[in-house]
Amino acid sequence: MTSDQAGRQVAPVPAATAPATTTPATAAVIAGTRHAPRLGTRTLSALGVVVLIAVIAVFPLVFTNPTVTNFGVITLIFVAVASAWNIFSGFSGYLSLGHAVFYGTGAYFLVVAAKDWNLNGSDVFWLLPLAGAVAALIAVPLGLVALRVRRHTFVVITIALFFIAQLSASNLTVTGGSSGVLAPIPNWAAATFNNPFYYLAMLLAVAAVALSVIIRRSRFGLQLRAIRDDEDRAAGLGVRAMPVKLSALVLSAFITGMAGGLWVYFIGQAVPQFVFDPLFDLAVVLMVFFGGLGTIAGPVLGALILEPTQLYLNLVESNSYESEILFGALFLVVILFLPRGVLPTAGEWLTPGRVSRLRSDWLARRARRTANPPVPPPEGNPS
Amino acid sequence: MTATLRADGVSKSFGGLQALADCSLTAEAGRITGLIGPNGSGKTTLFNAITGYERIDSGQVYLDEQRITGASPQRVFSLGVGRTFQLTRIFPRLTVLENMLVPANRGRSTREHRERAMDLLAFTGIASHARALAGTLSYGQRKLLELAYVLVADPAVVLLDEPAGGVNPSLIHHITDRIRELNAAGRTFLIVEHNMEFVMGLCHQVTVLDSGSVVASGPPEVIRTDPRVLDAYLGTEADDA
């Protein structure tokens, strides 16, 4: 063994180079194969976003059937809510089962304010930012209480807050008790009645996704994800955990509140058991888990697939049991086999190496096909 | 850039267990102080007490002349005391570079912060992993990453909890050299470590803890022959003596 005392005096230069040269060799392997998953190039995904928005924008002009556009409105509202939920829960790792509190607060605010201030038609839409603001305001005290605990305890507290909200709505006079409050009915033409709701829902969904992208790329988003991975370690690196978590919750509640306001105006009535619906939170959580927790596209994909499925099953079967059984089963499948969601799993499976291998396989197959035209039977194959 | 960290009569008990009993220790500015002692002697608890992860029952902690007793981990870090953990704690689902950007950037622009992060990754020898997810790093690389991101915010004092634990000899050498270089630039170190060769070779001053109390304190040459230390820590049949 080397002498300890002498070792203290040794100049650091010679030894420093030896291990430094070994690391880059292994580094290339790691950097090449286990990369942060990335599907396609940046321009490709930008193009995809433009196409998706264009398709959504022309959808109600092509499919004018009110039943179909009705699905569209609800689905887009869920795209917004799932993205909003993901901004808080997906990025921070604090799983909220109480977002219906913000959804319902926005909804009740809208119907009550519209009634009290005698607003009708498109004037009611001006209440949406206020509905979001009220939900955001509610999120501050709730967050200050609930965000003191983590993991399962946090989940249980959000469920408790949800039931407090639901009970309050059925018992307060301002919310009309168990009979609820009616929203004003706009006197728009029946054929295009859904369109204003549709485009506002689309705007809200695009805004929610855009906000997700901005946050994901910001220092704020990095702090949220650090909190998700190890909150105490983050605090020990100067991250102010509470303000960061609370800001995410407030932003999330703001969008969720606006979505709730838009939804209640669309369906026309606020009743406690529908406005504060426990299945609302489960559906949103399933959408985000299904698509990919903490990703940008995951919540969008989850909402776009699952919400129309549920609406369709409810419509065709005229009871909600089938969709509930299906969603329950799907939840189990996702948690057991795709705990990180469809997109991250696919992204991980489609590593750059595998993509290029699939591509070269495909090119080779195509080359073989063009070398021997498909018209003659396979016996004509040389070798 | 440099500062003296001082714990003064710190006591802490968990239920009936006295983890720290009137424990005093000084990490002199610009020097490397080692903290050794048998398992369960209170070394990590003392680290936690200093860095705000554990509330203490009595005593004070000072950074230079500023009292930092009871400050939150976030505040302790922002005052210039960085630490690593015995069970290395990194952010596995962030990339290595993102890990480096988590610490507060102290008024630097994003660009400067990023450059500083890359410099430190190069310094610790893991720059080529910058874009890999931190969870894919090996154990030794995680130790280096944790050291690197603690350094991002230029802490005056760095507390290392077993930097050589479970690390292969050539990497230990690498870590030793990095610590020497940083120390030469004036940074204060307080290091908990079980590897005697590492401690005796690196530290200017060694404090020995046993059952939550300081048994001895002094330069390594003195400590390694101190009968009280041999008795309490190395045991009678110590092969290092």
Distance between the termini of chain B: 37 Å
Percent of residues of chain B in beta strands? 15-25%
Which of globular, elongated, flat, extended, rod-shaped describes the shape of chain A? globular
| Tally of helical segments of chain A | 16
Number of strands of chain A: 2
Main beta sheet strand tally, sense and closure of chain A? 2 strands, antiparallel
The proportion of residues in beta strands of chain A is under 5%
The termini of chain A sit apart by: 65 Å
Q: Describe the global form of chain B.
A: globular
List strands and helices in order, with pairings.
The complex is a heterodimer of chains A (383) and B (241).
Chain A: H1 4-9, H2 13-33, H3 42-62, H4 66-92, H5 100-116, H6 127-146, H7 151-171, E1 181-182, H8 195-217, H9 219-235, H10 241-267, E2 269-270, H11 272-275, H12 278-291, H13 297-317, H14 321-337, H15 342-349, H16 352-371
Antiparallel strand pairs in A: 1-2
Helix pairs in contact in A: 3-8, 4-8, 4-10, 4-12, 4-13, 5-6, 5-7, 5-10, 6-10, 8-9, 8-10, 9-10, 12-13, 12-14, 13-14
Chain B: E1 5-14, E2 17-27, E3 32-36, H1 43-50, E4 58-63, E5 66-67, H2 73-78, E6 81-83, H3 96-101, H4 110-124, H5 139-151, E7 157-161, H6 169-184, E8 188-192, H7 196-202, E9 205-210, E10 213-218, H8 220-223, H9 227-234
Parallel strand pairs in B: 3-8, 3-9, 6-7, 7-8
Antiparallel strand pairs in B: 1-2, 1-4, 4-5, 9-10
Helix pairs in contact in B: 4-5
